[in-house]
């Protein structure tokens, strides 16, 4: 309407009567037409190119630019609302308890997770653990540390098949942030290589992926204690036969104490039962273990996270998760028994409880 009034003596074709300016109704209809099409039927005359009215061309240009942006915004907005997947995490179940238990000589913490909507299996489902220390005595009073997962192996991305209940575990080894510091073997053994800030796992050394032990005499590194002992014993024979003398304080293999320095010794290092050691440490540091499961929803291709946290009240010492998968009666398909999903067998028994020492 403003553009039409700038040059009242020129006929732009917006009205049939050149004496009058365009009324609001016609201007609104013209604006709508501009936003939706570029093929004009003008309210007035037949000239749709407005050669004499540059102000009208500018006006139409901005009207079209605005409508393009408006369409793009609406499309993006509705698509984003429809495709968001964060509520998909509701269908991922975590066990109500985490289990701390001893498997062989190794302490580990284990949880269980499952995606209820197994008809639409999650894509790229993977899991991570974090230890949140609310009253950490080290640092500024709170810390957030990553915990490596052993099963599934985080070296391979810790991917899961969540359409069946699967257990996730972290070894509470010497590098674990939830191991009470006074129980760390690296404090007691000079043979173990320090982490130097890396998030290591003892299991990597045991299977030969990384050498975690070092011979103090010659500097050779080994993955397992057994191999290091073999090396020291053999070198002792060589040194004995060759008549090696100790010179300038240099260590010989004959001088190494491989019995007292055993980094994998399993004898009791605490008078307290294991669960008391862990409970005391978890309470004093305010430790909360955070399990994060990330996956892609296969229907809308949206990424989502499901979170669960475990404090000392949510931890069971010893036991195993009950088997909750069974064969269906009618079909041969697997069925998940939700009644047993959170169940723990032999709680407080082997690998936990009051009688099990560290
Ligand atoms: Zn050596």
Automatic annotation (TrEMBL):
One of its GO terms (molecular function) is inward rectifier potassium channel activity. One of its GO terms (cellular component) is plasma membrane. It is a multi-pass membrane protein. Residues 24-85 form the Potassium channel inwardly rectifying transmembrane domain. It is found in: Membrane. Residues 271-345 form the Inward rectifier potassium channel C-terminal domain. The chain crosses the membrane at residues 60-80. This is Uncharacterized protein. It comes from Triparma laevis f. inornata. The lineage of its organism: Eukaryota, Sar, Stramenopiles, Ochrophyta, Bolidophyceae.
